[in-house]
Design goal:
By secondary structure, the protein is α+β, with helices and mostly antiparallel strands. It has one domain. The chain has helices at residues 38-48, 126-132, 146-160, 167-188, 194-205, 210-215, 218-233, 236-245, 248-260, and strands spanning 2-4, 35-37, 57-62, 77-82, 90-91, 100-104, 117-120, 164-166. The strands form three sheets. Strands 5-6-7-8 form a four-stranded antiparallel β-sheet. A two-stranded antiparallel ribbon has the order 1-2. Helix 4 packs antiparallel against helix 5. The longest helix has 22 residues, at 167-188. It starts with a strand and ends with a helix. Mean pLDDT is 74; it is low at 1-36 and 43-88.
């Protein structure tokens, strides 16, 4: 089997070209120059490991997500070696963006969302990739366009982060970012106004948003529910505390800056 080698592991490529651009306008396609065998991929991963240790399989382990993963110390994923008998991740059949590594997490991999691809946040087309998987069912506050919000949030993560993130994590961070924007609406709206009521309803509904349910563990979901409950209580000190933890001002500023340019 051959694998598409992510940029962070293209150790032998030197100054070779970027993956070829397709001639039919369909976006980047992967050059055969970037395909390697199972054995060679294992060798490169071992060489790239900053703390070499005996391992019998290759895996990807996600660092724990934070409640505000879009802040400067963005939580991302690192490539590591996992000791034990885990099988190698599956490989995506087709790649349309350089940001796609082609590696799919298997159900056996620790800390991963099963069957979700690993995405390289530092590739030039990461923002385009992220925008392509935006969930159009997600509600966007009045005055903002989904396209602007999706690209603004993805640009913010790219500027702040390094390494890999799963596609499921991209969708989850989109939902986190939208929660911040809606909490901003709630904070800025007069109490008992229609705008505040709408924002509160969206925040309560957000507990069941698909990527949130997929990427948050039980403890994180419980904490999120507590925070939304504090918002619904209407106590200004509690609301402002949650707004600070979610980085509301930071997210609003970044989105506004993107829309203005």
């Amino acid at each position: 089997m051959t694998h598409v080698l992510p940029d962070m592991l293209w150790l032998e490529r030197g100054s070779s070209p970027r993956p070829d651009e397709s001639k039919d306008g369909g976006g980047p396609v992967v050059s055969k120059k970037n395909l390697i065998s199972d054995d060679r991929l294992d060798q490169l991963l071992i060489a790239a490991d900053p703390c070499p240790r005996e391992a019998s399989a290759v895996g990807f382990v996600a660092r724990p997500r934070r409640h505000a993963p879009w802040l400067p110390a963005v939580s991302v994923t690192a490539v590591v070696l996992v000791a034990g008998g885990l099988g190698a991740p599956a490989i995506a059949d087709r790649l349309f963006f350089n940001a796609q590594t082609g590696r799919i997490a298997s159900p056996a991999e620790i800390g991963d969302v099963p069957n979700s691809e690993w995405i390289d946040m530092q590739e030039a087309d990461f923002v385009e990739y992220a925008a392509s998987i935006w969930d159009n069912d997600l509600p966007v506050p009045d005055g903002l366009q989904a396209e602007h919000v999706s690209r603004a949030l993805a640009s913010m993560w790219k500027d702040n982060g390094v390494g890999l993130i799963q596609a499921a994590g991209v969708r989850g961070q989109y939902e986190d970012g939208l929660r911040s924007l809606w909490l901003g609406v709630y904070v800025e709206s007069p109490h008992s106004s229609a705008q505040a009521a709408e924002a509160q309803a969206v925040l309560e509904d957000s507990l069941s948003w698909p990527a949130t349910r997929e990427t948050y563990d039980d403890a994180a979901l419980e904490r999120l529910g507590e925070q939304v409950g504090l918002i619904s209580s209407g106590r200004s000190d509690s609301v402002l505390a949650v707004a600070d933890e979610w980085g509301v001002d930071y997210v609003k500023q970044k989105v506004a800056s993107y829309v203005r340019r």
